[in-house]
Amino acid sequence: MPRDTGFPTADAENDFLRMRRRQVLSRLGAWLRREPDDVNIMLPFEEVVAALGRVGERRLGLQVVRLDSIIGSVDRTRDFDRRFRPTSGTSRQRWERLALARRRGESTPPIDVFRVGDLHFVVDGHHRVSVAHALGLTTIDAYVTEIVTRVSAAGIRYRGDLIVKDYRRIFLDRVPLDGEARAAVNLTDGWDYAELSEAVEAWGYRLMQDERVFLDRATVARRWYEEEFVPVVTMVRQAGLITTQTEAEAYLWVICERYRLIRSHTWNDEVLTSLRARV
Predict the structure, then answer these.
(1) Quick check: 176 and 197 in contact, CB under 8 A?
(2) What is the pLDDT of residues 116-142, one digit of tens each?
(3) Complete edge-to-edge strand list for the sheet that includes strand 111-116
(4) What residues form DSSP beta bridges with 111?
(5) Distances (CA, A) of 182 to 48, 187, 247
(6) Most buried among 80, 170, 218, 272, using CB within 10 Å?
(7) CA angle at residue 265 from 259 to 266, to 5 degrees?
(8) Cα dist. 172→53, 165, 246 in Å?
(9) CB–CB of 13/19 below 8 Å?
(10) How much is the pTM?
């Protein structure tokens, strides 16, 4: 907890001024470092859930929540920054009343949050979270409602990360992979998911033409992963052509180069030899 002078009212006022000063300095520092605009912006709940695809929800009741896991809000994204520092003096009186109560040892009601993965979004209690940060606390009591989503929230740090998650959600609608396959196919550039969707659907179309039978999306996705993705990635790895961050990126790169250079949809030793020589 910050230094206590013995005058709770003055300490509460200093708590608010300290948080405001840190918010201004943080914004200035981000500008000087030319960081992206979303570095200090609180994540908006509705945008996150829309990008991940909402499936359902369940109430988990009263729990102890880590403050550093609370990174967003349902409707107060402009009043506080990512670390719940006030962005203006508009709510100063209310903020200081809560800080004064905490410094006097008075209890405050638990906050209400939505949980998405390991992230928490405040429904009610923004000022209480801000005060808890100012007083150096690490946890806070909260009534938690868990939101179940189609795509995992893992890897979300900033607002810009939602673009990749949104493209992945759409990709999984078009290519409904499950289990190990779902976890294995990952891309770092959102637009690559759109290109990979097109590639999988084209592969499925050629498969249906060859077998003269209609296959649903789930079947195409499963067979593409087992009969195309895994064998190709294995061959590409053995050929020493993987220089990307993920196997899916390597697969997408090599099939695009194969067609651009060789005009072929087949895989054999001759294709790999030619591809390695010409790239």
Answers:
(1) no
(2) 999 999 999 999 999 999 998 999 999
(3) 43-44, 70-73, 119-124, 111-116, 139-149, 54-66
(4) 142
(5) 20, 12, 13
(6) 80
(7) 125
(8) 11, 11, 17
(9) no
(10) 0.71
**Radius of gyration over every alpha carbon of the chain, rounded to an integer in angstroms:** 25
123/120 Cα distance (integer angstroms): 10
In the chain, what is the straight-line distance between the N-terminal and C-terminal CA atoms, in Å?
A: 60
Q: Per-residue pLDDT tens for 84-108?
A: 888 888 888 999 999 898 888 888 8
Q: Write out the two tokens for 50.
A: 């829309």
Domains of the chain: 8-149 (3.90.1530.10), 175-278 (no CATH)
Q: State the Cα–Cα distance between residues 128 and 91, nearest whole angstrom.
A: 12
Cβ-proximal residues to 190 (8 Å cutoff; 6+ apart), any chain: 163, 164, 166, 167, 168
